[in-house]
Design brief:
This protein is α/β, with parallel strands linked by helices and 158 residues long. The chain contains 6 helices and 7 strands. Strand 6, helix 5 and strand 7 form a beta-alpha-beta unit. Helix 2 crosses helix 6.
Length: 158
């Protein structure tokens, strides 16, 4: 069954970096917000790196992203996917990443995981012409990295 990305990107004209996931998890789709699974470490990492302790609502997260010139979106607009497994993704239709980049000051793009990076490079790079840096997935299913490891690796976005 085809599943659609039902919430929009977060960005404004001052965004300087873009962080791209692959496709929202089941929890993120239900809650209509990025990295919404309680065990996902994305917001913990950004909170630590930017010394921001008050990210307890979607509104505060959006304000935080804009204040720090971070845009957030996913590569995929719609696809077939089992649960939240990137490995099951097929029949991809991608989002218009170029449209966001053209309205911002984005000069750096980071992807959160191998699937997001693979899809960005395959479908989006030629239109955007900004190379991506692949960062590890922040999902709790990615047990290869501790929170401390992820913080060290994600520090490069600063």
């Amino acid at each position: 069954m085809r599943i659609y990305h039902e919430f929009g990107p977060i960005f404004d004209e001052n965004s300087e970096i873009l962080i791209l996931g692959s496709f929202p998890s089941v929890d993120s789709r239900k809650k209509q917000f990025y990295y919404a699974h309680p065990q996902n470490r994305f917001w913990k990492i950004l909170s630590f790196l930017y010394k921001e302790n008050d990210l307890d609502s979607n509104e505060k997260k959006i304000s935080f992203l804009k204040k720090n010139h971070i845009a957030l979106f996913d590569v995929i607009e719609s696809c077939e996917i089992e649960s939240s497994k990137d490995s099951s993704i097929k029949n991809v239709k991608v989002n218009d990443i170029k449209k966001i980049v053209s309205k911002t000051k984005i000069k750096r793009i980071y992807t959160t995981g191998k699937k997001a990076d693979e899809l960005y490079k395959k479908y989006c790079y030629e239109k955007v012409l900004i190379p991506s840096t692949c960062l590890p997935s922040t999902s709790s299913a990615n047990g290869k990295y501790s929170l401390e490891d992820l913080i060290k690796i994600y520090r490069q976005i600063l």
